[in-house]
Amino acid sequence: MEYRYLGKTGTKVSAFALGGSSFGSRTSEEDSIKMIDEALDFGINLIDTSNRYGNGESELIIGKAIKARRQNVILASKFGAEATHELNHSGASRRSIRAAVEQSLLRLQTDYIDLYQLHLPFEFVAYEEILLTLNDLVKEGKIHHIGTSNHLGWQMVQAQAISDRYHIQRFVSEQTPYSMINRQMEFELAEVAKQYDLSLFVYSPLSGGLLTGKYKAGQAALSDSRAATLKGYADALDPELAENEYKFKIIEKLQQLANEAGILLADMAVAFTQSHPSVTSTLWGPRTSEQLKAYIAGAELRLGTDVLDAIDAIVPPGKRIDDKEQTWSPEWMSAERRRRHVS
């Protein structure tokens, strides 16, 4: 396992990380703990979760699984996207951040979180409010480092400037989607990360399972697949929709390239994310032990220039094939914000 620095913190994290989004929701506690043990034994030291995953169940399971090995784990969690309709019980205010971290520490059965990440940007909360609160938590020893998730490049630059102005903790990482068919990260965010010594943790390297090779344009998905399970709710995964035909034709070209190279499409997809110099760690989000074993089996694969050039010819650098893969929609894209008011 290769280990890389988390920004300029001096902390080293594994080139692959275990994501806990399925733990406690789509994966049982027993199977989740088994996968955590397998990942740690393989050499992974970075485990990522959120207080949103499984409504807190993911943190509970991870806390139980790593209790005896806590000193060997770099534990990352996220806040701000809590699934609740209670007023002031979620978000990124000083009050909600303090409540969230205390609850996460209890669930994780630990005194500190190594990397505490803002799950989403918040238009109506100033970065000063968020950063000053997180800075206090670092001083108190409850968290060690701070990061973000699903942020844009300009937002990262703005936050860095505020940290410099107040001489307080700065975000050291950003967690963002990245795959062979969603290369938007390369257009701006990768360069921002380079300029500001930010670590990039990339998730969804298989684009929600699209790059496993099990879907064909115009054909019904297998009954046990994610696309079949979420049919009607996740249109981006549906191979039967005419609007997705172009995307699945692109995936077929990538499949052909993988066949010619003698490698699995899924392995090529994960290795692709590791080829970018700005990527610190690629998050694996297995639902089953078999999926984790498949990730591990392909972990050593590295792509040559010829394969990377061929991928570029199919999906140009910086391009996102399907806009439905965007993980969040900013407030300024609402109809009210895009149109002048007519009296």
TrEMBL record:
<keyword id="KW-0560">Oxidoreductase</keyword>
<dbReference type="InterPro" id="IPR036812">
    <property type="entry name" value="NAD(P)_OxRdtase_dom_sf"/>
</dbReference>
<dbReference type="Pfam" id="PF00248">
    <property type="entry name" value="Aldo_ket_red"/>
</dbReference>
<dbReference type="GO" id="GO:0016491">
    <property type="term" value="F:oxidoreductase activity"/>
</dbReference>
<feature type="domain" description="NADP-dependent oxidoreductase">
    <location>
        <begin position="17"/>
        <end position="314"/>
    </location>
</feature>
<dbReference type="GO" id="GO:0005829">
    <property type="term" value="C:cytosol"/>
</dbReference>
<feature type="region of interest" description="Disordered">
    <location>
        <begin position="320"/>
        <end position="343"/>
    </location>
</feature>
<protein>
    <submittedName>
        <fullName>Aldo/keto reductase</fullName>
    </submittedName>
</protein>
<dbReference type="InterPro" id="IPR050523">
    <property type="entry name" value="AKR_Detox_Biosynth"/>
</dbReference>
<dbReference type="InterPro" id="IPR020471">
    <property type="entry name" value="AKR"/>
</dbReference>
<dbReference type="InterPro" id="IPR023210">
    <property type="entry name" value="NADP_OxRdtase_dom"/>
</dbReference>
